[in-house]
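ok so I'm stuck.
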Amino acid sequence: MAKELSIFFSKGGFSFFVIKNGDLIYHYKKEYPQNAFELQNDLLNLTQENALYWRQNYDIVKATFNSSQFNLVPTEIYEAHPEPLFWLEFNTEIFELDPIKNINIPEKNMVLIFSYANEVDEVLKHYFESYTVEHSLQNLIKKTTSHHGKRMYAHLFFSSLSLLVMDEELVIFYNIFDVNTKEDFSYYILNAYKNTDLDPTQDTLYCQGDNLEEYLKMLTNFVHHIEFI
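replied:
not stuck anymore, here's the structure
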C-alpha cells in the first residue's frame, strides 16, 4: 500500500498532505516567518507539533518549493552553459549554502533552475533519509495538458502568486509575485495579460489556490472567463 508525504513550501507558509492509496489522510497548513534565519527553528517546531505524521515511514516523500529564485531556460541555450549557478548568479536572495536544482522539462524543451533555503533542507534531512525536490511550476505545467489556445494559469499560496501563460504547448511567460492586497492580485494578472498580448475578455484564466473567491471579485470586472483547476 503506497503512502506519500507531500510538502509544499512557499514564501509566508507551508503545508503538507499525507496520502495513502490515493486517499487524503491528513492536511496541515501554517504560516511561518519570512526571515530565513528564523525559518529552521520555526519549521522544526511546526513539524514537531505533527511528529505523528512526520516520523512515519513513507514510500514517497516529496517537497515542492514555490521558489522565486529560479530561471527557465530553453534546453539548447542551457546546454551551452550547463552550470546551474550561471543562471541564478543575478539573484541576490540566494545564499552560499542554499541548494540549487536543475530539472529538465522535456515536454516544453526547457530547463528549470531554482534554489531553496538551506534552512528548509536541513529540516528535511532531519526527518528523512531521502526525498524528492520539485518546483511548483512542474505541478502547474501538468494542469495545462487538457487546455488549448492562449490562456493563463494563476496559483495563489499565502502571499505568493504564480502566473504561467501558454500558447498551445509553448510557454510564453512565467513568474512569481508577492501579493499583499486584492489590488496586487488583479494588477499582476492584468499586467501579464497586457504584456503577453492576451485578451482578458476572450482568453481564459485558470485558477487554483487560497481564498480565491475574495481575490477574484475585483478581477471579474476585467477578466471574463475564469475557471478553477
